[in-house]
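Question:
When you can, review this sequence-structure pair and walk me through the tokens.
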Amino acid sequence: MYANLFETYFHVVTANSGPMLEEVFRLRHQVYCEELGFEPQRASRLEHDEYDKRSTHCLLFHKASKTYIGCSRLILADSNEPEAPFPFELTCGKSLRWSFDSSAGTGRERYGEISRLAIIAKFRRFPRNEVAVADGGSEDFYDGDEDEKHLFPTISLGLYLAMTAIVLNQGLKGVFAMMEPRLARRLRRLGILFEQVGEAVEHHGLRGPFLIDCDSILNTLKPDCRALLGKIQNSLAIPHA
């Protein structure tokens, strides 16, 4: 179901330079600075930080509206400073139940962090009385054409699988993400088995640190999600300006 629907309505592209990378920063500013107020607004209307220089980025394109409606990035270990922490380490502090150890084969160079996953407001909603989050939280939808509402949650799923495709291409051992615990439970039902590795903390809403083992993900993904991953991998292989 997800694979065919996704291919009909969306595609994912890499965005690591030039106008495409600027589109990522523009979309992030729209979501994080203008819509949600998580970050201060910039005169340039582009949101970026020190981690972008060691990240690989992607954009989600909605074919019907001909617009980019989501983005995400994979932060990699800093090649110049191998012991430089990932953002989730700084956010979680002592509540984190994980430590990197190069001598045990679990050095930072073997891992990445999914970060800055953002979906524009029209394509996300939040249960009443709950804090808004940039990725649509555990329940996202398209507030538009009734015939398209059955597509979702393929938006956040598509972005997480795009990150999975990039992680697999990088040959990493595992990848971390800060997310709502119930979103992690929802992804688990699809075979994306994130394991919580620390206490939930206040971080634009209550979020916890989660880790997924890349060696096993192809074995645990539900068949339809595995088919969607394959389509996304093909899409990411096509160069875009």
Summary: Residues 2-236 form a domain with the Aminopeptidase fold (CATH 3.40.630.30).
